[in-house]
Amino acid sequence: MISRLPLIFLAICLVVALVIWLLPATGGFDKIALWVADGIMLALSLGALALMRPKLNERPQAFVRGVFSATLLRMFVCMAAIMIYALAKRPDLHRGTLYALFGIYALYTLVETSALSRKVRKQ
Fold first, then answer.
1. pLDDT tens-place string over residues 62-97
2. What is the pTM of this model?
3. What is the Cα–Cα distance from 107 to 44, expressed in whole angstroms?
4. Domain count for the chain
5. What kind and span of H or E run contains 10?
6. Which stretches of 25-59 are DSSP H helices?
7. DSSP 8-class letter at 3
8. Cα separation of 100 and 105, whole Å?
9. Helix, strand, coil share of the chain (percent; to 5)
10. For the segment 7-38, what is each residue's pLDDT rounded down to a tens digit?
11. Domain, as residue range, for 84
């Protein structure tokens, strides 16, 4: 499962990018911000997976620390990016875009955490 996880992340990135592309132009969504967020989350997920891969066969405490640190890193980067976006687009900020940004974060976090937990449970 772990060896397929980068492909799963890439597939999620492509599906999310397709969904963003299919959003109506009159909806007010900032498609560029959503695409950038999708790319950032893909890069963070792949980077976190590369950092966590050696810890999978170590003690369970090391694995939990790795998952927690990856989730925390992703959350802080996501919060900082959303704050920068909100301050830059302050006069015409679209709430739907903010909710979609959170949805992208939640999707990547859910997939990574569930896949890694399933891997450790099988060991």
1. 777 878 888 888 899 999 998 999 899 888 888 888
2. 0.85
3. 13
4. 1
5. helix 5-22
6. 31-52
7. T
8. 9
9. 90, 0, 10
10. 999 999 999 999 999 988 777 888 899 999 99
11. 5-122
